[in-house]
């Protein structure tokens, strides 16, 4: 079982990728990166590329094979392989023929994959079940495989569902039974139990963890432990404090003064279900000074640590 930090816009920046890689993720994916932005050498686009990472995969989006070729040649030395986004359901992306719109044109997707393969890069593709009126995931996956993709990952929702409703892992199982290439599964994988259940129910080679890793980068090691040992450990309060502070430091190092604001979305998830954290979260959402923020964290966690409320828990696969 290979676990991967799934690409998430505004989330999987260099700092979070490196943190998750250090905590057991086998692979980490960049945010989706525009091929047009790359070939124009847009400053913000270039800043999204991996630096000093040996587990990262670059995800690209666009709809022109020739431009994918140029972009792939620019970045192939920075990535284990190239992932083509044919899954993003957001309207501002699909209306331009990118993301999930490629599922309406399997032949074009095949040509894009084939073009990237011609540059010497390995290629994977991320898809959805399809559109409500055309759930053609199998045909799309076959087209990707014909183009030379070695892996197709499927998010278990239709385009129109966005991220609502329950993800369906059955299409991943169908792909695994129908294709000779590798298969990945994505969607509603929030806990170590979800990771192991998705692996066992679908037979997928790659398990993609998205929102489940925000605030819980421990999920990668926990999932491996659950699969191999039947149990896993939760981080102590001291460890949680140290990782929060490490992550904060990484975001500030990457984004300078904006790092504190960027970190807020992560911090809220780190504090989920922790006792008496509501006031702390409200204060930190207003703080812009690093020392003040760290002082608040130290004060809050020192009380939890002194009460020795950290510990080890485990459970059965189905919870």
Task: Please provide a written account of the structure.
With 319 residues, the protein is of the alpha/beta class. The protein has two domains: 2-229, Alpha-Beta Barrel (TIM Barrel), CATH 3.20.20; 237-306. Helices cover 45% and strands 14% of the residues. It has helices at residues 14-22, 35-39, 43-46, 65-75, 91-94, 106-117, 137-147, 170-178, 192-202, 219-229, 237-255, 258-270, 278-284, 290-306, and strands at 2-5, 27-29, 33-34, 56-61, 82-86, 123-130, 151-158, 182-186, 206-209. An eight-stranded parallel beta barrel has the order 1-2-4-5-6-7-8-9, surrounded by six helices. It is globular, with a radius of gyration of 20 Å.
Summarize the structure.
With 319 residues, this protein is an alpha/beta fold.
Low-confidence stretches: 309-319
Q: What is the domain tally?
A: 2
CATH architecture of the largest domain: Alpha-Beta Barrel
H/E element string?
EHEEHHEHEHHEHEHEHEHHHHH
Distance between the termini: 20 Å
CATH class of the largest domain: Alpha Beta
- Percent in strands: 5-15%
Helix content: 40-55%
Mean pLDDT: 93
Structural class: alpha/beta
What global shape is seen? globular
- Give a count of the beta strands, DSSP E runs of length 2 or more: 9
What Rg is obtained from the alpha carbons, in whole angstroms?
20 Å
What summary fits the major beta sheet? Answer: 8 strands, parallel, barrel
The strand line-up of the biggest sheet is 1-2-4-5-6-7-8-9
CATH topology term of the largest domain: TIM Barrel
């Amino acid at each position: 079982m290979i676990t991967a930090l799934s690409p998430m816009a505004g989330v999987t920046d260099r700092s979070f990728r490196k943190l998750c890689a250090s905590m057991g993720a086998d692979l980490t994916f960049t945010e989706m990166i525009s091929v047009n932005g790359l070939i124009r050498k847009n400053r913000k686009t270039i800043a999204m590329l991996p630096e000093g990472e040996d587990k990262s995969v670059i995800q690209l989006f666009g709809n022109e094979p020739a431009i994918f070729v140029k972009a792939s040649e620019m970045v192939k030395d920075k990535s284990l392989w190239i992932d083509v986004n044919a899954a993003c359901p957001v309207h501002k992306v699909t209306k331009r023929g990118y993301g999930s719109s490629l599922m309406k044109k399997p032949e074009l997707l095949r040509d894009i994959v084939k073009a990237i393969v011609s540059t010497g890069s390995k290629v994977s593709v991320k898809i959805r079940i399809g559109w409500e009126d055309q759930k053609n995931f199998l045909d799309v996956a076959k087209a990707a495989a014909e183009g030379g993709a070695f892996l197709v990952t499927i998010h278990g929702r239709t385009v129109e569902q966005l991220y609502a409703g329950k993800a369906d892992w059955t299409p991943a199982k169908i792909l695994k039974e129908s294709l000779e290439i590798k298969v990945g599964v994505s969607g509603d994988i929030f806990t170590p139990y979800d990771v192991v259940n998705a692996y066992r129910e679908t037979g997928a080679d790659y398990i993609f963890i998205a929102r489940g890793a925000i605030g819980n980068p421990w999920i990668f090691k926990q999932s491996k432990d659950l699969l191999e040992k039947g149990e896993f450990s939760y981080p102590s309060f001291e460890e949680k404090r140290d990782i929060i502070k490490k992550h904060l430091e990484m975001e500030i190092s990457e984004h300078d003064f904006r790092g504190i604001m960027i970190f807020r979305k992560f911090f809220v998830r780190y504090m989920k279900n922790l006792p008496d954290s509501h006031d702390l979260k409200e204060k930190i959402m207003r703080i812009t000074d690093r020392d003040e923020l760290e002082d608040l964290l130290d004060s809050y966690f020192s009380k939890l640590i002194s009460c020795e409320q950290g510990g080890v828990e485990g459970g059965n696969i189905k919870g």
